[in-house]
């Protein structure tokens, strides 16, 4: 699908649903809010769905309160769905099964592992963030790019590029960011909210995580873990663990950082980050995916056993 093909498609629908992935990041949230606002300004009825709680740190984004975690469409209405920033429909967790109520799915994403599950697929792996593709959609179709949309897009791109520091940051990323700044975005507000501000809970959880830090200097892997019960002890949400894996990855002479989150349901969510190795490939052994340098998977089994299994694959792959 090309950007210009979008408009004829939109003309056939008044009701549009936007979906994004579980454990939503800044790109998932910002892209959804920006695209929703653009469609609302076209006169569409738009709902936004995410099978998870939206972290409070994103509450500065206009429309934050619009996210819903239950998809209950009116049966009679013809529905067009946009699925944003999802490499596959399983990322919508329990909402995946409800997608049968949708007439057409448009899949917009930048993950290299994207399965092209949509009726229309706009997948650009060269884009640093899904928000870059949304920006292009808005521009190519001459839609209005107001200050609210600009803020959401800027936050999304800023989030997926680690504040324009990661390898995915391209000259095009900077050109788009420059245009968004010209539209009145305050870059300090975004970096303060996304990167500097810490809740006390997050800091206390980080202290717990750092106690578990282990390193394998030979294989240049460092890992940390946390149990769901620890998160509950602080009355916190697992979303507060976002970014912890980077502390392991960032250690000098380490290549790969791993974070294990052991849920009470016997499932471990594994976050993988790397400086140089393809961790998406490692995650794919366990049915996961992501980007070469940032990936994840979910593995069933006893906590200790899961950790051993994952570390074994990493050591063998290196
Ligand atoms: Mn993204």
Give an account of the 3D structure:
It contains 11 helices and 12 strands. It has helices spanning 6-11, 26-40, 130-140, 147-160, 171-182, 187-196, 200-211, 228-233, 244-249, 279-284, 303-317, and strands at residues 15-20, 45-49, 67-68, 79-84, 104-109, 120-123, 214-216, 221-227, 256-262, 267-274, 289-291, 294-300. The mean pLDDT is 95. It is 36% helix and 20% strand. The protein has 318 residues and is of the alpha/beta class. β9 (256-262) and β10 form a beta hairpin. 42% of the residues are buried. The structure holds manganese (II) ion (MN). Manganese (II) ion (MN) binds at residues 27, 85, 110, 129-130, 160. Residues 27, 85, 110, 129-130, 160 line the site of manganese (II) ion.
Chart the SSEs and their pairings.
Blueprint: H1 6-11, E1 15-20, H2 26-40, E2 45-49, E3 67-68, E4 79-84, E5 104-109, E6 120-123, H3 130-140, H4 147-160, H5 171-182, H6 187-196, H7 200-211, E7 214-216, E8 221-227, H8 228-233, H9 244-249, E9 256-262, E10 267-274, H10 279-284, E11 289-291, E12 294-300, H11 303-317
Parallel strand pairs: 1-2, 1-4, 2-3, 4-5, 5-6, 8-9
Antiparallel strand pairs: 7-8, 9-10, 10-12, 11-12
Helix pairs in contact: 2-3, 2-4, 3-4, 4-5, 4-6
Pattern of helices and strands: HEHEEEEEHHHHHEEHHEEHEEH
Count all strands and give the number. Answer: 12
Helix content: 25-40%
Going by helix content, strand content and strand pairing, the class is alpha/beta
Question: What is the number of helical segments per DSSP (H or I, 4+ residues)?
Answer: 11
- State the shape: globular
Instruction: Give the biggest beta sheet.
Output: 6 strands, parallel
Widest sheet, order of strands: 3-2-1-4-5-6
- Give the overall pLDDT as a whole number: 95
β-sheet strand percentage? 15-25%
Distance between the termini: 37 Å
Low-confidence spans: none
Q: Which small-molecule species are bound to the chains here?
A: manganese (II) ion
Please tell me how large the radius of gyration is. 19 Å
